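Entry for cobalt (II) ion complex. Fields follow.
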Amino acid sequence: MIVLKNERDIEAMRVAGTAAGTVLDEVAMFIAPGVSTREIDLYAASRIKQHGGKSAFLGYRKYPDHVCISVNEEVVHGLATERRVQFGDIVSLDVGVVVNGYIGDTARTVAVGGCDLLSQKLIDVTEKALYEGIAQAVAGNRVVDISRAIQTYVEVNGFSVVREFVGHGVGKRMHEEPQIPNFVDGKSSPKLRAGMTLAIEPMVNAGRPEVQILSDGWTVVARDGKPSAHFEHTVLITEKEPEILTWPEKRQSSLKAG
Ligand code: MF3
Ligand code: CO
Ligand code: CO
């Protein structure tokens, strides 16, 4: 069953989404050479609290950390450790925040200081693929229109989309229906309707699409060891343009100011 949100739900999703987007932005700015992923996670925890939220991830299926931090060939669900990130690494950060019972879910990949040209192209293509997907997220289209737009853009640029993990509906629960694959899977695909809130999230590998899970039980890595990137927004379907719910506060105030 796909949950349609009413105006009150939507207002609450805006609040949770803004908190998630703002925390993501703050944590992204905190990342610098020499900082450990544990320190990044603890900083994220403090920012989430500051914004009146709770981590949507901590304790979810026994997940042990506040955010997901995935470095280089790690795709998603990386754990906080004593590992210190270095200049040239790329870090995928995924933030889920609960405010008043509603969840915002958003992710971004950033370079630590700078990175090689392949990793930078991977980051740029993955981000653009997200916006290609979001552009299809309008009432009357189907989920597969989002999937196709993402897959096409990624593959035209020579990269591959991960199959094992997908986007999803989001609301009071982190993973609601429908699933939103980043590829065309040939299954029947629900029609998009105003009031759906969806987490659209391409996970893109520089090399082959296959992934495996490390022995820690969580960290998903590219099997071929090549870098991977991840971008995600929570989006509201409307009769017109999709509304991105996970922009940081600062972007919203600058939009208002014109
Ligand atoms: N945020 C992830 C997603 O986008 C889910 C993380 S689940 C966790 O769907 F347990 F790893 F936190
Ligand atoms: Co996420
Ligand atoms: Co998600």
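NOTE: The chain has one domain: 7-257.
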